[in-house]
Every structure is written in C-alpha cells, then in structure tokens.
Design brief:
One of its GO terms (cellular component) is plasma membrane. Keywords: Membrane, Transmembrane, Transmembrane helix. It comes from Brevundimonas viscosa. With about 675 residues, the chain is α+β, with helices and mostly antiparallel strands. Among the domains are: about 180 residues, no CATH class; about 200 residues, no CATH class. The chain is built from 13 helices and 32 strands. The longest helix is centred in the first third of the chain and has 33 residues. The two termini are about 85 Å apart.
Length: about 675
Amino acid sequence: MQNPLKENRKWLVVRERALVPAGARLRSWRDWIVANDPVYAAARRPGRAEKIAASVTLALIAAVLLFLAFFDWNLLRGPIGRWASERYDRQIELNGDLDVHLFSWTPSMQVRDVRIGGPDWARERDTLQVGDLQASVRLRSLFAGRIEMPRVAVARAEAVLISTEDGRRSWALNPDAPDTGEGLKLPPIQRLIIRDGRISLDEQGRNIRLEATVDAREGTDGEAGFRLEGEGTVNGTPLTVQVRGGPFLNVRRDRPYGFQAEVNGAGTRMVADGSITRPFDLGQFTAELSLRGRDLADVYLLTGITTPNTPPYRLEGRLTRDDARFTFADFSGRVGSSDLSGDLVVDKAGDRRRVEADLRSRLLDIDDLAAVLGAETRVTGGGDSRVSSGRPGRLLPDAPLNVERLRVMDGELRYRAARVKRNTLDVRQVDIGAQLKSGVLDLDPIAFTFNRGELRGTAKINATRDTPYSAVDLRLRGYPLESIIPARGGAPTVSGSALGRARLEGPGASIRDFAAGSKGTLSLVVPQGRMRAAFAELLGINATAGLFKLLGGDQSTSEIRCAVASFDVAGGTATARTFVIDTTPVLARGSGTIDLGSETMNLRIDGEAKEARLVHLWSPITVQGPLTRPQVGIEGGAVAGQLGLGAALGALISPLAALLPFVDPGLAEDANCGALISSAR
C-alpha cells in the first residue's frame, strides 16, 4: 500500500517546480498582449475604422450566403463537365438539373442525367450513365477531417466495364497509375439505395461476358437488401453470378457487413459466405469459401490464377482479403480420389500476381498426379482414379501446356504426399517443389520414393517462347528389377537394383511433343543381380540348356555380373551406345533404337555362351513394337541359314556333322563391368 504522505510530497514538488513557473509565464504573456497588441486594443475599444471594417465583412458574408441560397447551380454544369473531360481524357457531361443544399448540418446535392464516356479505344459505349444521383455529407465529421455520408441514392445507373487482353480497363480514370490490386474504398454510407442498376462486363482476356442487375432496397420484406444477379458466358460456356447482402440501413464502419456470393461457370461452382470487415472498404473481407468442379485449371477463367489440370475436385476453406493479398487458409477436400489440404496466398509483386502454395496429401492416388502432367483420368464408382488415355497403347500424355497462363504470374509451390495408394510402380511418397518466375518454371525437387529406391531430379520449362523449351535431369537409385520385369511361375525372373539417369532437353508443348523432339542421354545400370538360369541360357539362344531348365521347372538362378544400357538421343530417337548384359553363362550385347515420339522400339540382342553348348542358335533376339507391348522374337533369316548349313553338312559328310553349326565352343569372356558402369554414369 502506498504512503499518502509520500504521494502528497511528490505532488508539492511537481507543483512548485513545473506548474507555478508555467502559470507565471502565461500571466506575463497575457499582460504583454494587453499592453502592446494593436489588434487586441482595437477589439476592446473599436474606433470608427474598425466598425466600418466589421460592417463590411458581415455584409460580404451575408451577400455570399444569399448568393449561395439563390444561386442557380445549373450554371456550373458546363464548367464542371469541361474540366472533368479534360482532366480524365474522356467526355463527361452533367445534362440534367444540379441542385445543392448547403445550409444544413448534412449538406446535400442532387444531379440528374450524368454521362461518363469511354476512353479513346472504347468510345462506342459510355462507361457510366446515371439517371439520378443524390448524396449528403455530415458537416461536423467533415470539419474533423472525415467523410461520412448519411445517405446516397442512385437510380437508373448503367456501367459498362471493358477489359482488354493487354490489360487496359475502360473504368480506370487514371490509366497510368500503377495497379496496386487494392479493392474499391468508399467513405462510410449510413443509407445506400440503388434502384434499377445495370452492369455490363466484357473481360476479353478470359473471354467473359456478363449482364447483371444491381439493387439495394430498404425495408423488412423479402425484397429488402442488396442484390447483384447476372448471366453471361465464360469462354463460351454459361455463367451465372449472385451476390446478396442485408439492407444498407444504419451501417456502421466498425460493424461487419455480411454477404453471400455464388458463381457458376466454366465447370466450376464457387460459394462464399462471409462479411466485409469494414463496410464500403471492399479491400477487406473474410468468407468461408467452397469450390468444386471438373478441373482446377478451369479456375483460371474465373479468377486469373493459373492452376494445374486435375480430376474432379471439391475444396473448402477460409478466404481472407487484405487489399491485394488473398489467403485461402487451412483448406481441405478431395481431388480425384486423393485428399488435399494446405494454404494458398495470392499477392501482388509490382505489376505481377504472385502465388504461394503449401499443399499436402495424407493418401495420394498416383493416377491423380498423372492428370497434372496432362493425362486424362476418370473416377471409378469405388472412388479410385484411373488414367484413361484417348490413344490406347501410349504412355506419354499429349495435353498441351498453356504457356500464356504461365506468363501472367509468378509463384512458388510445395506438394508432399505422406502415403500413396498401392500402384504398379510401388511409389510410397511424393515430394515436388515448383517455382515460377517471368514465364520460367523450375521444378525442384521432383522426388518419388519407392518401396525400395527413389527417383529424384529437376526440370525447367521455359514458357517465354511460343513453343516451350524444357530440360529434365532425373536420377533413379536402387529401384528393384522385380518391379520392372514381372515374375513368372511364382518366382522372380530377375532380382537386383537398378540405377538410371535421363538427361533430355528440347521443344514441345506437351510431354509427348517434348519426347519426340528431345536430345540428350538415357542410361540404365544394374551393378549386380540374379536371373533365372533358364532365361540366362535363352539369352544366348542356348536351346538345350535353356529349354530343358525352363520346361523342367528349374528355379535355379545365375549371377548378373552387370547390365548396362546407355543411349544417345537426337530428334527424339534413342540409339544404343552401350548395351551389355553380362551373366555367369552368357554375355549379351545389344544394338538398336527407341523412338520416343512414336513410343516404339527396335532392339537386337546377340548372346555368346561362356561355356560350350551343344545346341546354340546363331540368331539374335529381337525386341520390337510399342513400349507398352513389345514383341520378343528370333531373327528368322539367321536361323534358316544355320539350319541349311547343318543339312548340307549332314548330307555331304555325316549325320553327326549336321550338329556342328549348332555347337557353341563357349569362348565369350566376362565383360569389364567397372568400365562399362563408369561410362554409363
């Protein structure tokens, strides 16, 4: 508890040291003014000149007030219109009566038949026509430096809003001013009435046409409140817009104004239920937003935000606007048969829009991710996504990349899938990062984690050209051969881990076009592994050894000392530079090409035994046809020649001599695996 005596002592010190000297100075200043200031002396004892001056001043004030009371304000319509037309470089006219009422605590004005023309490039339609406009302002707030409007009434207003592909906007009175992205800000209006309002929108960049009506009515019936309803088209498809709110009656700046909005168009439905934080400041609001549609890429047509292609989706979250910054926070939902959640921020960086997204999936269907790359997908009755190619037998999607959308914004994205549904590739986790700047898209990382091994790399897409130019560098580590070559008879055909790398670059609007025109290198390496002994023998066309083991159900394996396949790619054709499969019994060498554009292969494998074999067909194995269904066979011409030679020897020498062409002495040696692997990497 404080000591009262001590507090009183402090107050006495303050009074003696500060208040008493200040009071003395004020009295001294007052005495000097009384003794020396002529204005003060004249006011205390006015003479004849002072009385005349005061009378003239009062007469002038009275004359001004009488002039304002009886002035015909219509005389100012022409000067105001000419000044505004010159100021904003468009025709502005006040064609109807202009009435002003100044002598009130809420001065008001009324003007009829206002016309604001379009800019030079859009003069065929007026930007705004207003049949009747009434407005009042609160005088006491105006003296305090604030604008408050007790009432605004607008009747028979029609606005025509035109936006061109190059960014010009007919309603921008100062087109040279930078676009900050901030929303419309009006002074507080306590009562707003709009009757028979119309809005025509022509957004040429996204091909949007809209005709809407606007009304704001007072009352307590079902017709009271704010309504905006419109119909039109977006990119040739139907578009409807509805916005509703309560009556603008007793609206206060510190009380949020609730609204509901719904937009349907371009296969997308957007529903918002929220409030404007400070009424008439459209740059500040929050809303619960629901989105659903057939493809997230269609959202661009309604919002101008570039998003990837997806299967059908539904998302819900909280949308907040803070001037140019939009935040779609903590949203969640489904895309295809995968869950998706995260945060999305859209902001302005200079004159460009910037998007930042952090996206997550607890359980991803890998086919949903394929849709992002341009593959067509469908959702089955069981809720799973399936890739449905319009061209059967093809692996690479041919959906073109929309380069114009990549050029209009910048951004950064990170997507992570904690788990992946069971799939043929055995992908278990996904981690993808993307950065878009000035039309160049960098994908880093691209990471797929498998049950064993991973695929990781980067890609860059330069969309500043008419035809995008891309470069990819992908590395495969530790991928199991069992996932590449299926098992036969319940036992794996091969086992081991594969290493690989793809470095390709080239032009192309789609992945398929890129592959068809690419250049670079492809390589696949198996440092060591195991192969069914029967297939190892057949690799060298050792008929007796291979067939006997295969038909006898032999499950023994042979060592794969190494396998190396490296290709040089030019013009979309991969030509084998090194193709070696070295097993314990056979050394096989291959040659040929893979056409990445048509997704076909034409390979030839020649096998040599390392030990003597009785029946060996001196014929290469051929692998030909589509990548999805290659056909394995034997080159018939060599076998026919071998059979003919055997028949001739049997006829000329003896039946035993007929076997000589089929005997392989087994002179092949082990390959230099270290050198082969080093050259492939």
